Structures are given as structure tokens and as C-alpha cells.
Amino acid sequence: MKKLALIGSLLSMAVAAQIGLAADKKGVADDQIGLSKTSVEAVPDPQVFEYRGNAPFSGQVLPRAYQGAPPQVPHNLEGFIPITRDSNACIGCHQQPAMIGKKSKGQPTPMPVSHYVDDKASAMNMGRYNCTQCHTPQATVKPLVGNTFKK
Ligand code: HEC
Ligand code: HEC
Q1: What is the mean pLDDT of residues 5-27?
Q2: Which end of the chain is more exposed for a tag (fewer CB within 10 A), N or C?
Q3: Ligand 1 centroid to residue 22 C-alpha, Å
Q4: Which atom of ligand 1 is least distant from the CA of 131?
């Protein structure tokens, strides 16, 4: 009885595989597999794009994607990146513990208390040192894939 059941399920697997093959006969063209619509053999240069042109202090901020999302960088990062062990320009403007919770338009938003080691903001949490890991500058580019995310 067990053997019969096994043969039965093997048969149905074979039939399913056949149906799958028939549907997939054309396959996916090799220039449609990845996000860059070129042959998988090609090594195309990445598309050149420019970040938003405004320097800090233009007074612009971008909408948050959802509550708790890291805000996107609204200004360009010319001269501020790469962030290295010895140089982090972001901290120079954004590490202002005394300003936390105080609104001041056109001034650098102070890094929130979550970016410090304690709720007195006595020292920066070094896990937050590499700002651009979470806060990304923005450019006007066509998304590679559509996004249906809703808040
Ligand atoms: C010269 C000062 C300065 C430097 C350096 C700087 N910023 Fe800013 N940043 C600002 C100001 C001012 C604003 C407020 C918007 C404006 O007026 O441009 C801001 C806004 C932001 C915001 C948006 C905050 C919000 O409330 O939505 C983020 C995120 C940010 N900066 C990240 C960074 C990162 C990351 C770096 C380093 C790569 C950096 N900034 C370097 C001055 C600076
Ligand atoms: C591991 C991810 C991560 C890193 C690294 C990081 N941040 Fe953030 N940041 C966040 C998130 C998430 C928020 C929003 C939630 C919150 O307030 O903690 C935020 C919020 C902010 C805000 C907005 C504060 C407000 O009151 O609205 C500023 C400004 C900021 N970060 C600056 C920085 C700077 C400057 C650095 C680097 C020195 C940095 N962040 C590093 C994740 C990060």
C-alpha cells in the first residue's frame, strides 16, 4: 500500500514537472534576468546620476517614509563623504545634544537621543558613527522596480 502511494506521488510530481516545462519553454531572456536590462555577460557602467543640488542650510527637509524611519538627507554631501575614522563632517553639524527636542528651522536637526550611549546624550553611540549607512542622500532617478509600500 505504501509503495503504491509512493508511485502515485512520484507520478503526480512528474506530471507537474511536465506542465511546468511546457509553460516555461521560452524561459527568461538573459538580458531580462537582472535589474540592469543587459546580458548577464556584460559589465555595464552604472548609470551616472547627481544628488540633490542644495547645500545644507537651504531649509528643506524631506518627508519621512514612516514613523521611526531614518530621515533621508535633504542636502548634498559634497565634501562630507566618505566618512572615515578620523573625519566625520556630519557630527560637526548634527551632534548638538543641547538642542534635542528644540525645533529650529533652517538649522541642522540635532541627532536624536537614540544616537547616544544614554538618555542624557553624554557620548555618541559609536554604532551610529557611519551615518550614511542609514541616512541616504537623494537623487531624482527612475526606480528600478515599482514600490507599492504604503504607510
Ligand atoms: C554644514 C553643516 C552640515 C553638515 C556637514 C551635514 N549636515 Fe545634515 N543638515 C544640515 C542642515 C542645516 C539640515 C536642515 C536642512 C537644511 O537646511 O539643509 C540638515 C538636515 C539633515 C537631515 C534631515 C533631518 C530631518 O529633520 O529630516 C539628515 C538626515 C542629515 N542632515 C544627515 C546628514 C549626514 C548623514 C551628513 C554627513 C554625511 C550631514 N547631514 C552633514 C547641516 C549639515
Ligand atoms: C543604524 C542606523 C543609523 C545610523 C548609523 C545613524 N542614524 Fe540617524 N536615525 C536613524 C533612525 C532609525 C532615525 C529615526 C528614529 C530615531 O529618532 O531614532 C534617525 C534619526 C536621525 C535624525 C533626526 C532626528 C529628529 O529629531 O528627527 C538625525 C538628524 C540623524 N538621525 C542624524 C544622524 C547622524 C548625523 C548620524 C551619524 C553620526 C546618524 N544619524 C547615524 C538611524 C541611524
Answers
A1: 57
A2: N
A3: 55
A4: 35
